[in-house]
Amino acid sequence: MKRFCAHILLFLMVSFNVSAYQVSPMFQTFEVAGKASQGSYEISNTGSQEIILQAVVYQVSFDSLGNEVLNESDDDFLILPPQSKIAAQASQRFRVRYLGDALIPQTIVYRVIFEQIKTSDDSEEGSGSVQFMVNFSTMIFVSPMNCKPEVTSSISNGSLIINNPSSCVYDLNLTRFEFSSGLLSESLGWADLNVETAGYLLPSRTQKIKLPKQVVDSKKVKIIGPY
Fold first, then answer.
1. Where is the signal peptide (predicted)?
2. Are 153 and 146 in contact, with CB atoms under 8 Å apart?
């Protein structure tokens, strides 16, 4: 069991050489079966040296304080290749398929972490310098089949209140909010609300967001969603 709070984890090693790479996408939504139970990651090595990466899967739960608790769950996914050597300025596609429980009652959250492996060549470099091995933590939301996401919204004391009463995660990044105050109205997207979170609201969760200045006098809000 492990606990993580950061999305990018840095581990201090022994030589000054930062390997740079990019992972896309950082968030994916799956269903337990069918075409929507699979996806992929594209990893680009933007650095000047070859890197070796491996994928590790953790199921996410939350403690009483809302902190993530990670339990290794590699058997819940098939990831091909599980490990790859990527040349400098090259890229590699990792294909991912969910193999876990098909009878889940609501969305389950997983982290797929790409860990950079230290090679024997790395250990032969000078011992008086510092090396950073960069791990990227991505997130997959796995939901029941044909689960319809749903949220409700209201305004209270200058804040937007969003609640997810459904059994599956709701992607707020695809949603627009129409705020109104009397005869005037304005439509804002998730990014316009200046929220620090990623925009995925889990089942039975509520999020409270301070209204931006341009809609602070709004009395009503209407969701214009993609679902």
1. 1-20
2. no
Tens-digit pLDDT profile for residues 136-195: 999 999 999 999 999 999 999 999 999 999 999 999 999 999 999 888 899 999 999 999
What distance in Å separates the CA atoms of residue 141 and residue 88, rounded to the nearest whole number? 31
Q: What is the pTM of this model?
A: 0.84
How many Å apart are CA 104 and CA 180, to the nearest integer?
A: 39
Say how far apart CA 56 and CA 4 lie, in whole Å.
14
How many other C-beta atoms are found inside a 10 Å radius of the C-beta of residue 159?
A: 14
- Residues of the chain with pLDDT below 50 are 3-18, 126, 128-130
Give dist(CA 133, CA 83) in Å, integer.
16
Q: Which CATH number fits domain 152-224: 3.30.810, 2.20.25, 1.10.3470, 2.60.40?
A: 2.60.40
How far, in Å, CA of 43 to CA of 78, rounded? 17
DSSP string, 8-44: EEEEE-SSS----EEEE-SEEEEESSSGGGEEEEEEE
List CB contacts of 210: < 8 A, sequence separation 6 or more. Answer: 158, 159, 160
Burial 35-44 (b: 16+ CB within 10 A, else e): ebbbbebebe
21-118+131-143 has which fold? Immunoglobulin-like (2.60.40)
